[in-house]
Amino acid sequence: MSTRRIVVTGATGFVGSAVLRRLAAQDPRAVVRATSRTPPPAATHGVRWVDADLADEQSLRGVCEGADVLLSLASYIGPDADRCAAVNSAGAAALVAEARRAGVERIVHLSTCAVYGPGPHRGQDVAELTPAPVSPASAGRLAGEGPVLDAGGLVLRAGLVLGTGDRWAVPALVDAFRRVPARWGGGEGLASFVDVDDLARLIVAFALGDGAPAGTTGVLHAHHPEPVRNGDLMDALAEHRVLSARPEENWPWHRCLEALAATPGWVSERQFTLLARDHWYGADAAWELAGITPGPGPLSRIGPAAAWYRERGGAAPG
Fold this sequence. Notes:
Largest sheet: 7 strands, parallel
Strand order of the largest sheet: 3-2-1-4-5-7-12
Distance between the termini: 43 Å
């Protein structure tokens, strides 16, 4: 098998660093070029680091030269609308243009199910949904998908990503539970989650895979096929002492929203709704095409990340 030459953007990020670990374990002969705006960690044997910023088109020049595969994993998910456009939309387009100029054969781009907007969503596949983003971050990420699809690449829309390094999903749930200390609408809401290492397995399968994975294009959902019930997630977090207590009372939705609004915190009503109500999506196709199993599910992965979550608490992701 010939040596693969792979470019990974966003390589110091939550998902990108997990992908680097998976690449090193699965194909140690691969030649990996990783981009970052920040100094890379010391222990990255075999990785060539390149200083590049999606918001700076000039810094991307030559980054894909000689590569076979581009894993486009960098994004900005903060509130700055101008930066969302510069990184997630214009930056993604510039990166793909550079990949096409360099003759890269395979592009895998990480996006988000947040592009679908407020929902509720209950098990639909990609073809059954129309994106309707409501934040600058998700609007920019939707726009960034276009150049990838035009280039014949693969877009992976992920649900909520869990694991050591998660600064958004579980910290948001902890902040919300502090303000709304009950089962939200009975804890029945279902959402799509994926452990970061399982997501990395999926991304790498499409990066390295032969046969069907190599030729996969279009948009796929990239999370565990089985949705997670909100009450079960809260119980698991309480068991691992991430939440201060197991929620006992069931509060109706209107009371949950009243309590959230009455207590200061960083999680908005829109973000709370994403956590507490039905937002789950069909994802069998991605795992079947990649030829790998999705694993036992994100709840079984909470334990190894519990220390991170206990230290992080409900801190805002800034």
